[in-house]
Known about the structure:
The complex is a heterodimer of chains A (84) and B (508). Chain A is an all-alpha fold. In chain A, 50% of the residues lie in helices and 0% in strands. Chain A has one domain (4-83): Orthogonal Bundle (Non-ribosomal Peptide Synthetase Peptidyl Carrier Protein, Chain A), CATH 1.10.1200.10. Chain A contains 3 helices and no strands. In chain A, helix 1 (4-14) runs antiparallel to helix 2. The relative contact order of chain A is 0.19. Chain B has 2 domains: 12-390, Rossmann fold; 407-500, GMP Synthetase, Chain A, domain 3 (2-Layer Sandwich), CATH 3.30.300. Chain B has 15 helices and 26 strands. In chain B, the strands form 6 sheets. Chain B has a 9-stranded mixed beta sheet, sandwiched between helices. In chain B, strands 16, 17, 19, 20 and 21 form a 5-stranded antiparallel beta sheet that branches. A 4-stranded parallel beta sheet of chain B has the order 4-3-5-6, with helices on both faces. The chains are: A mainly alpha (84), B alpha/beta (508). Chains A and B meet through loops of A and helix 14 of B.
Amino acid sequence: MSYPSLRSFISEEFAPDIAPENLSADLDLIETGIVDSLGVLKLIAFLEGEFDLNITPDELDADLYRSIDLIETMITSKQMKVAV
Amino acid sequence: MLLQTNFQISKTRAFYELLREEMLKTPDAEVGTMTEKANFAEILDLAEIICAEFPEVSSDRDETIAICAEKSPKTVAAILGALSGGIAYAPLDPTHPDTRLTNILDDLGPAVLVVDDSTRGRFEVWARRSGTRLLTLSELPDRVPERVVASGARQSLAAVLHTSGSTGKPKRVLIEAPALDAFQGWIVDEISIDIDDCILSHAPFAFDLSFLDLFASLAGGACIALADTRTARNGPKLVHMMQEQNVTVWHSAPSALKLVAEAARDITLPQVRCVLFAGEPMPGRLLRQLMGIFPNARFINIYGCTETNDTFFYDVPRLDTPDPLPLGRKLPYVDFILMDRTEQPVEGEGEGELWVRCPTMMRGYSDQELTAKATGWRDGIGYYRTGDMVRRDDKGVVHFVGRNDTIVKLSGVRIDLNEIEANLQAHPLVDEAAAYVDKSGETAVLNAFVSSKSDELNSIDLRLYLMKRLPTAAIPRKFMISIQEVPKNSNGKACRRMLEQQLVDTHP
Lengths: 84, 508
C-alpha cells in the first residue's frame, strides 16, 4: 500500500528539492545519505505519530527503513496486526 | 633560516661554473622552441653578453634579476646570465595579470627586469615609475665580452619563486644555489640523464618544476624542448613537438598529460623513456591511456612543493597499478617525520602531517613570520611542515591522505572536503562544488554548495552519484544547487568560510 504523507515527509524533511512523487520507492535512503542515523530517529517519530504505530526497540535498526518500499510494507503489516 | 649549507657548491656563481663546465662537454646540444633554437655554446655566449648588462653586485644585500619573458633559448641564457653574475633570478609568469606582476616587482626590487618583445609593453610604465632598467632580449649587443668574475660571487641566493598564499598575497620563496645543485644531482642520477636525451620543458620558468627541465638537462648534457605558453596548452602541438624534437623525457603536471592523451589518439611515442608527473593526483584512467601512448616509458609520480622541491617519488608499475598512486618513497637525501595531532612523531605504520627536511629546501620565505609558521622543530632541527596528511603503510610506502586543513571529523568519521568536492565536480552536470561544515546547529552538518547551469540536476542525482564513490558519512546532508558560482576568496579558491558563516545566500 502507498502512503502519500510518508513521501511528503521524506521530501520535506530530507530532500527539499525533490517532489514527493519523484522519490522512487526502491531508492536506498541510507546509502544515498538522505536519511542518516539521526534521520532514522526522526522518521520513526513521524511514523509513530502519523500512523499510530508502536515501534519496538529491536525495530530501531536503520536497515528496516532503507527504502520507501520497506517502510510502506512495515506500516501495512503493523496496521494489520493492530486491526486483528 | 631553514637551510643549513655544507655542500660543495655554496655560491650562485659556483653553481653557474659547474653548469658551464658540464655544458661545454656537449656544446652542440640544443635548446629550442618550435621556431627558435640555440646550442649550449651559443647559449653560454649569450649568457655572458646578458651578464655584462647587469650591474656589478657588490653589496651584501641579495640581488635579483627579474625575468618576465616567453620561454626561448634567450630566456634560458638570461637565467644563466644572472647566475653567472652571482645574482638570483626571479622568473615571473607572463600569463599572470599585470597588477599581480607589478606588485611582486614592487616588493622584490630587482636590479634589472628582463623582458622580450611580447612582454616589454606591459612593464614600461612600471620601469619608469620605479627607476628599474628594462633589458629587452631582442636588443642585445653582438659582441661577447671578456669573462670577468663578478664581485657578486659571494651571494648564495640563486632563485626567487612566488607561490600563492592563503591570504591572497604571493609568498616569496628564497632558494639557494646548493639546493639547485643537490636537486639536479639527484635527477641526473635517478633517471640517468645523458647526451642522448631530450627533455620537454612544459612548466613555465616561474614554477619549481622547471628546475628539473633546466638544470638537470644542462648538467646532464641533454637537449631541451621548450614548450612556450601556446604550445603548452595545445595537445596536438605538444605531440608534434615530441615527435619533431625526439623527446625522451617528459615532465609536467598530470593535466598537461591529459592534453597529450586527448591529442595522441592512436599515436604512440616509443622513444619517450621516462614520464615524470607532479603537482596533483594522477587519475587512474588517464594513466592507463598514457601507458599505451608511451609503451616504453618508466612512469614516475613525484611529490614535492615549491618550498622543498621534490621529496618523494614512486615508480609506477605497469601491472597491478595502484589507484590512487602512492607518494612512494623519500628521495635519498630527504629526512621526514609524520607528526600526529599532539605533535608526537608516528613510528612505523600510521598517519600524520608530513614534516620534511632536505638539502633542496628553501632558505625561507622573504617574510620571516611566514617562515617561522611553516617551520616545525624537533630535537633542535627545523623541518618544513607540508600541511599534507600522509599515511605510511607496513612496507614503508607513503600515501597521500589529504590537506590537514580540509580534513574534518563528523560523528567520529574522518572526511576530506577536497575529496567530496573532487567527486562532485566529476559529475557531468556540475560546474563547481564546495563542501563545508555547518556548525550553526546543535550538531555539525556536512553540506555542499553545487554550481550547475543545468536545471535537470537535483540532489538525488548527486546522491546516487556520490553513493558509488564515497562512504555514506561523506555524503552531504544538504545540497544547495545554484546557477551562481561557488564563492571565492581573492586567490580564486573556493571560500568555505563564507559558506560556513552563511555570508552567501545558500538557498536555491
